[in-house]
């Protein structure tokens, strides 16, 4: 899916992304940056906008050590 979240919101609701976020109590800056949380995903889905919530990658707990950064 190549359309941006702003374009998908505009096509489905005829609101700008900023207006849509204001009306639904969502974080405009988070959506603009591409982060879609559970609450945002539910609201977008309710309006027929396809969006997947972003999964957090916990990664390796020793990431600092593997990057060469000293752990004290």
Please characterize this protein's 3D structure.
This protein is mainly alpha-helical and 72 residues long. Helices cover 50% and strands 0% of the residues. It has a domain at 5-46. It contains 5 helices and no strands. The radius of gyration is 17 Å and the shape is globular.
In short:
This protein has 5 helices and no strands. It has 72 residues and is an all-alpha fold.
Please give the structural blueprint.
Blueprint lengths: L4 H9 L3 H8 L3 H6 L4 H9 L16 H4 L6
DSSP, total strands: 0
Q: Can you give the helix content as a percent range?
A: 40-55%
Number of helices: 5
What is the rounded Rg? 17 Å
Order of helices and strands: HHHHH
Keywords:
single chain, 72 residues, mainly alpha, 0% strand, globular
